[in-house]
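Morning, I've got a small favour to ask if you have a moment. The fold is given in discrete form, as structure tokens running alongside the sequence. I'd be grateful if you could look everything over and explain what you see. No rush at all, and the record is pasted right below.
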Amino acid sequence: MAAFCARPLRFLLLVYSSESVAMAAVRAASRRLRNLLTRRLTARTNLGLSLNFHPMSSFAQDEASKAAPEEAPGHSYESLRVTSAQKHILHVQLNRPEKRNAMNKAFWSEMVVCFNKIAEDSDCRAVVISGAGKMFTSGIDFVDMASGLLQPAGGDVARISWHLHSLLSRYQETFSVIEKCPKPVIGAIHGGCIGAGVDLITACDIRYCTQDASFQVKEVDLGLAADVGTLQRLPRVIGNQSLVNELAFTARKMMADEALESGLVSRVFPDKEVMLDAAFALAAEISSKSPVAVQSTKINLLYSRDHSVTDSLNFMKSWNMSMLQTEDVVKSLQALMEKKELKTITFSKL
């Protein structure tokens, strides 16, 4: 009986052992096949083919490509979009693309709020301003602004004039606040820059544009003289009074090449994307320097523009007798002696 029972048991063990060997062989073959496929796929990837085991849908890819930087904290506006483009750099966009970035009532107050905040933002060291959509700006939104401009409050000439004087003062501050901001502001212009757009960009410290950009002092075609900065700043920007007069008297377009030749812009780029990349690269270069040095330089450049050489030198003495005591001088000189790039140095916030 025991012998009878032992034979089936040996038989079962033999079968089980054979199946185990077969399974082990299958697993080994599977591993070899998987390794072979991995080597071949890796080789194809190294040759430049794209390998994606979990491909995104076309919709997801489109959404990912459209993903934009998040809104900067404390900057929520109707007519503007402010984002943190890079470390120490803010990107301010005119953000009414469906209206060609026309400047409505909200814009004139929001620009003041925005740049006053930027002026006090110790983490920001440079600003890029551009326009969303197909053009930089079409200028004033007269549909939205007509009531305040053409039907001013007041019962007689004196009171109407008093009201308009106050109104124009506020509108002028919309662009003067860019100039007053101690952080360098880079204007990045594409497509049309019309009317009040020229007032805006002449308040910027540096201007880049695309090849398709055009500039137009449009106000005379609307029956008025430009009154929020162009006539005061454009002559100082391009240094050619004859050309300024021609542009202001005729409202003709100045194209990108002429803008570059006249000094209105410092560089021209083939398209908006390339221009913005260059503008952010410039902003990054500026923000790598001592904020004490950069902001002191802007303040003194503007003072010198509006004062005599003697007065400006005296102002500079008073300014630097305190600013020369900054730790940034020691850090910058040490980096220079050690042949280090300034971007590797950490400057305190200002």
